[in-house]
Amino acid sequence: MMSSDNQLTELINLGAIQQMQGNFDVAEMYYTKASAINEQNVTLLNNRGMLFYQQQNFEEAQAIFNKVIELDDNNATGWLNLANTLVLLNNGEEALNAYKQSLKLRPQQFEAWEGLAKLYMLANDMTSAESCWQRAIDMGPGKPELLLGLAQVYLSGNKFVDALELAQYVLTQNHQNTKALQTAGLAHFMLKNYGLAIQYFRQYLGLIAGDTAVRNHLAVALLQSGDLQAGAAEYETILKFDPENIEVRINTGVLCLSFNRWDDALAHFDHVLQNDPGQNKAKLYRGIALVSLNKKDEARQVFEDLMQDKTGDWAAPAKKQLSLLNNLN
Q1: Mean pLDDT for each 10-residue chunk of the chain (329 residues)?
Q2: Residue 180 sits in a domain of what CATH number?
Q3: 92 inside domain
Q4: Which residue range or ranges hold the Cytochrome c-type biogenesis protein H TPR domain (predicted)?
Q5: Residues 257, 314: one domain?
């Protein structure tokens, strides 16, 4: 007959297997049976806490990890799990302490250095973040997520060549690593290597087509390289995913003006103003579209209204457009 300790271990292992496969209800069943044998087993509690963590029930997860620490305050895994949970509960100060406690007990665990690095990035302490990413890489050499974490710090610090080198190294290991493709594209973009940025952004979007932030960078890179039609096409694709993106819709309207697509431009500006009547940039360009459509009286009213806005930056451009309109008559 199996001893209670062996039975406990088997139940925990069976639960862990189901948990890794995403079968959370089955995992909970095994953990409940294990709890009936020894509800204070810290391995069981850590696993069960992670079960709640994976289901985004962070308050319950925190309570369980706190229980782990109460039972064994030298449990490095418990401190790490607690720290990760506290970050998601926006409790940065306690998370910082928990990461440090975990590293004090097990300084070689790269996961804690990684978590600490991310926490420092959230606090915009990039110097500390860089140091922690370096320590994480020392403990987990070659791991792409660590190298790309450091690359993000380099991007934020305008070390674009350094960020690019890390991204390209990761891509030699896996040419479809989306984070590396995005990082390489951003680095080239900031270095004004627009042709190369376009290549990386397109590779990325071939894998994650709905990422509108990356597609916006692609659109800007195309515009900067002089391909206005392709840039406009990317803006229009963004609007299919995010039709209420005001900035992109205004930019699309402005490009339509440059292509003499006056009706399309007007439709974009009207759409913006229907949702945001105070959007003065859209008002100004709407007036320009109306002039091009020979709706001069309506355009004049737009410019005159904008000239009354003394709080923004659009009175002077509106006055200039009104002067140009009057010179047409």
Answers
A1: 79 95 96 94 97 97 98 97 97 97 96 97 97 97 96 98 98 97 99 98 98 98 97 98 97 97 97 94 96 94 89 87 86
A2: 1.25.40.10
A3: no
A4: 107-211
A5: yes
